[in-house]
Amino acid sequence: MHIETSPTINSLLKKISTYDQAADLDIIRLTYDFAKQAHEGQFRKSGEPYIIHPLAAAHILADMRIDPVIIMATLLHDVPEDTSVTLDDIAKNFGDEIASLVSGITKLGKLKYRGVERYLENLRKMFVAMAEDIRVMIIKFADRIHNLSTLSSLPPQKAYRIALESLEIYAPIAGRLGMDQMKSMLEDLSFAYVFPKEYQRTIALHKEKIAGKEQYFHEIQDIATKDIESAGIPLISLSGRNKKLYSFYQKLIRKNNEVNKVYDLIAIRAIVPTVADCYATLGVLHKLWKPLSGRFKDYISQPKPNGYQSLHTTVFAKDNQIVEFQIRTEDMEEEASFGVAAHWHYDEHGAKAPKREVQWAKELAEIQKEMLHKLSDLEEIKVNFLQTRIFVFTPAGDVIDLPENASPVDFAYHIHTDIGNKCSGAIVNEKMVRLDTSLKNGDVVEILTDKNRKTPNEDWLKFVKTHSAKTHIRNHQKKTKMAAWLKAVLPKK
Ligand code: MN
Fold first, then answer.
1. What is the H or E stretch that residue 119 is in?
2. Rounded to the nearest whole angstrom, what is the distance from the C-alpha of residue 99 to the centroid of ligand 1?
3. Which of 86, 222, 225, 306 holds its CA 20 to 30 A away from the CA of 407?
4. 354 assigned to some structural domain
5. Residues 56-100 pLDDT 10s
C-alpha cells in the first residue's frame, strides 16, 4: 500500500479489475467524471486540481482490494460538502447506498473543533460514524491518509493539529479495528509533524540498525526455507519485514531507549496454508535455533482483542543473533493487514470475502473504555454512554449529546432555555418534523422559534426526555398557575 502522487482514473480501474472481474468499470468511470466535474475549478492547497484527492484516496482502498461501491463513495466523498452538487443528486445518479456512505462522511465533516474539547468531539464523531456504518470509517481513514501525505502545503499549526489528531485518535481506532496497514500509515505520516526531533533521531537509528543486515537476513531466510520445505510443509512465502518507524519509536520508549532490546526491528514472516502448518513450522524453527525464553506468543489459540492471529517466536539464529519470526496463514495475514476492512474486500480469486461476524457492540465498548480512560478528567461521561446517549449536530457543526429518543424540544433546551421556551418547529436533516419526533444519531437539527411565544407547551412534558427540558417546562407551568391565581385573588385596581 502506498500513496499515488499522480493517480489517474485508468490506473484505478486497472487496479480494481485485478481483484474484481465483475466490477462495472463504466459506472466507476462515470462516478469519477461526475466528481471531477463537480470539483471543476477547485484546487488543493498544494495547487493540484481537487479531484486528485478523492482519486488518491480511492487508490489507497483499491490497494486493499476494497469493494467498488466503497471506492465509488470515496470518489464522491467531498462533493456535497464542497460543491453545488447535493446528496440528492448523488442518490439520483448512483443510488441510496452510495449516497448514504457519502452522507456519513459529510456528517463527519460538519463537526468543528474547539480547544481541549477536541479529543472528546473526535471520539463522538467517530462513534456517530461507526454506529452508522463501518464503511464510512474505512473511507475516512483513506481520506485522512491522503490528507496527511500533503500536510506540507498547510500552515504549520494546522498541519500539527491534523497530525496530532491522526496519531492520537485515528490510528488507535484503526488499530483496534485490526486495520494494521492503515494504522501504520496514519502513524508514520503524522510522526514527523508531531515529534519532528524524535522522528529525525528514530529514522537515523532505524537506518543505522538495519544497514548491512540484508545479507544476513537473506541467509537466515534461505536456511529456514530449506528446513521448512524439507519437513514437508508447503510454505507459501517467507520474507523479512522492517518494523514501521513510529512503532519502532514507541518500542524504544518502552525499552528505555535500549535499541538492542528491540528484537523485531526486522521480523521474518512465514505464510503457510493451515493452522497445523503454523505449529509445524514453529517446531522446525525451534529445532533449528534455540528460542529465547518467554518470547513465544500464541495468538492463534488466543487472538488479540482486535482479531489478530499469528505465532510469534524469537530465536538465537546463526552467529547467535536474535531474530523474530511470525508464522500465520493467508487468512490471518489478510485479517492482520486489513482488519474489519477485510469484510469488504475481495480475496485472491476475485470472490468477495465471506462476511464474518462483526461484533460491533463489543468493539465499540472496548474502544470507548480505552479512550475514556484517557479522558478520565471529564467525569460526567459514563462508560456506557453510547448505549444510552445519542449525538446530534447543530447546523454550525457542534455536537450535542442527548438521551436516546430525545426530541427536538430537548435539543432546543440544551442549546438555550429561551430557545426551548420559544420553540415552534424543527428541521431535521433539512426536513420539517414534528416536535415529538425521536432524534437519531447523526441528525442535524435546527430549531425554529416564535419570538412572540412566551411559554412552553405543557403537552411537551409527554415526550421530553431531559431533566432540563422537564424542569423548564414545569417551572413555566407553575409560573402560569401562580399568575392566574394571583390575578384571581389580588384585588382589582
Ligand atoms: Mn476528503
1. helix 118-132
2. 15
3. 86
4. no
5. 999 999 998 888 999 999 999 999 988 889 999 999 999 998 998
Q: Is 82 part of the annotated catalytic residue set? A: yes
The count of domains in the chain is 3
Domain that holds residue 105: 9-194
pLDDT of res. 384: 33
Residues 141-165 as b or e (16 or more Cβ within 10 Å = b): bbbbbbbbbbbeebeeeebbbbbbb
Judge if 23 and 149 occupy the same domain: yes
Domain of 53, CATH number, reads 1.10.3210.10
The per-residue pLDDT of the chain, averaged, comes to 83
Co-location of 19 and 166 in the same domain: yes
Contacts of 272-275 with CB under 8 Å at 24 or more apart are: 272/228, 272/233, 272/234, 272/235, 272/236, 272/327, 272/328, 272/329, 273/234, 273/236, 273/329, 273/330, 274/329, 275/300, 275/329
Residue 468: predicted pLDDT:
80
Q: Does residue 450 belong to any structural domain of this protein? A: yes
Distance from Cα 167 to the centre of ligand 1, integer Å: 18
Sign of CA dihedral 210, 214, 215, 220: positive
Catalytic residue among 82, 89, 401, 436: 82
The catalytic residue among 40, 63, 78, 81 is: 81
Rounded distance from Cα 147 to ligand 1 centre (Å): 7
Please indicate, yes or no, if residue 360 is contained in any of the structural domains: no
Is residue 81 annotated as a catalytic residue, yes or no? yes
Give the max Cα distance, the chain: 111
- Report how far ligand 1's centroid is from the alpha carbon of 81 (Å): 9
Query: Crossing angle for the helix pair 134-149 and 118-132, nearest 10 degrees?
Result: 130
**Co-location of 281 and 251 in the same domain:** yes
245 and 330, same domain (yes or no): yes
Same domain, 185 and 245: no
Is residue 302 domain-resident?
A: yes
Q: What is the CATH number of the domain that holds 308?
A: 3.30.460.10
Q: Which of 97-106, 348-357, 446-455 has the lowest mean pLDDT?
A: 348-357
Average pLDDT over residues 264-287: 92
Q: Are 324 and 268 in contact (CB under 8 A)?
A: yes
pLDDT score for 171: 86
How confident is the model over 451-468, as pLDDT tens digits? 888 789 989 999 998 888
Find the 312 Cα to ligand 1 centroid distance in Å.
38
Instruction: Kindly indicate the confidence band of residue 352, based on its pLDDT and cuts at 50, 70 and 90.
Output: very low
Residue 25 Cα to ligand 1 middle (Å): 22
* Residues 18 and 149 placed together within one structural domain of the fold: yes
Q: Ligand 1 centroid to 155 CA: how many Å?
A: 18
Same-domain check for residues 163 and 41: yes
Name residue 389's beta-bridge partners.
403
| Per-residue DSSP letter, 425 | E
